[in-house]
Amino acid sequence: MTGCVLASIFTGMEPQVRVTLGALGGEDALEHYRFIESLGIGSARLQMGSYFLPGDVIRRFRERPSSEHSEIVG
Question: How far apart (Å, rounded) are the C-alpha atoms in residues 54 and 45?
Fold first, then answer.
């Protein structure tokens, strides 16, 4: 499910999950994330087509000093 569809389902369910128009600001994005996380919903496993990326591959990518995403906690 795309983020815009998912966000529209949850908009207004809690006061902090507000309607947004245009570019999503950091504070609104964080409130939407916190709400979705509170429901126990997480991200899907990373995949390419029908191939799922193994956890050790993702870990090695994050450990690479050349990766700007190496500080993401998984």
Answer: 9
3-state secondary structure of 52: strand
CB 62 within 8 A of CB 70: yes
Helices 3-10, 26-38: inter-axial angle, 10-degree rounding: 70
Give pTM, 2 decimals: 0.55
Cβ–Cβ under 8 Å, residues 35 and 17: yes
Give CA 72 to chain center in angstroms: 12
Element (H, E) at 47: strand 47-48
Residue 10 burial by Cβ neighbours in a 10 Å radius (0-12, 13-18, 19+): middle
Express each pLDDT in 31-53 by its tens digit: 888 988 899 988 888 888 899 99
